[in-house]
Specification:
Nucleotidyltransferase, domain 5, 2 domains, 46% helix, alpha/beta
Length: 271
């Protein structure tokens, strides 16, 4: 099993959540399985396509794993440990990592969720959610947001920018923002003026019939735009965790924590 990610989350709980750690420490509490075994089980769970009911890791039954998963979620352990590792990552040569910032939205089909999943006409009117990412030059996720499946990508991005605090926005002052044609709107250019150094967005010429009026990126912008493939790779890496390809969790907050676990695993494997 991936010891790096397990050790990272284990040490985060040990140092930042001592009360929670005591409940897994045999000195203070008697239990059959230790914290590292539980973390290994949850990590293995997102890598396979299985329901909680049918899942078993070594000799730990599904009920024990699920109860501990919910327990850890109350503290937002996977989310907070991810941002803890992200801060350490960003501190090393910040300028190069934030030279470019990419955004993209991916659709995840719903199975059991009720609070975020909505029907989308572009996906056979199926119920879906949208996962929006902001990543750095290497494709490492800086911010993620889960929105309803019937929201347009540009609307999701607006909500994501609103969710950032002033310090998070300030770090992008020297960054070039790159996005596909789904984000080509005057409103996005306007809000990006106060956040990013420059915005390179693929022009959306879908309804422009006159060839002379069709907008294009210049040669240098085209070269820079090709770097956007990094965020596509990140989306594919997330989807390599098979459990995350569908939303089986009834509460979106639980699915969100599984996403953060995968992002943390990707971050540690990348750096």
């Amino acid at each position: 099993m991936d010891s790096k990610i397990v050790n990272s989350i284990y040490n985060f709980i040990k140092t930042k959540h001592t009360d929670l750690f005591k409940t897994y420490n045999f000195v203070y509490h008697t239990q059959k399985y230790n914290l590292k075994e539980i973390l290994e089980a949850i990590l293995f769970f997102i890598k396979i396509s299985s329901s909680w009911k049918n899942f078993k890791y070594k000799d730990i039954n599904h009920n024990t794993i699920y109860k501990n998963f919910i327990k850890l979620n109350k503290y937002k352990i996977f989310e907070m440990s991810y941002y803890d590792n992200l801060k350490k990552y960003i501190k090393k040569s910040t300028n190069k990592k934030l030279e470019y910032v990419y955004t993209d939205t991916t659709v995840v089909y719903n199975k059991l969720n009720k609070d975020k999943a909505k029907r989308n006409a572009y996906f056979k009117n199926k119920k879906v959610i949208k996962l929006s990412l902001l990543t750095d030059s290497k494709g490492i996720t800086l911010n993620s947001l889960i929105e309803s499946g019937n929201e347009h990508d540009s609307t999701v991005y607006k909500n994501q920018i609103k969710s950032l605090n002033d310090n998070e926005k300030r770090q992008f002052i020297n960054s070039i923002f790159i996005a596909d044609s789904g984000y080509d709107s005057s409103y996005i250019y306007e809000i990006n003026k106060n956040i990013f150094k420059k915005s390179i967005i693929k022009p959306n010429n879908r309804n422009t019939k006159n060839k002379n009026k069709k907008r294009k990126l210049d040669e240098n912008e085209e070269k820079v735009y090709k770097k956007r493939i990094k965020i596509e790779h990140t989306n594919q890496k997330i989807k390599s965790y098979r459990r995350l390809n569908f939303v089986y969790e009834k509460e979106i907050k639980n699915y969100k924590q599984l996403i953060y676990l995968s992002l943390n695993d990707i971050l540690i494997k990348t750096v």
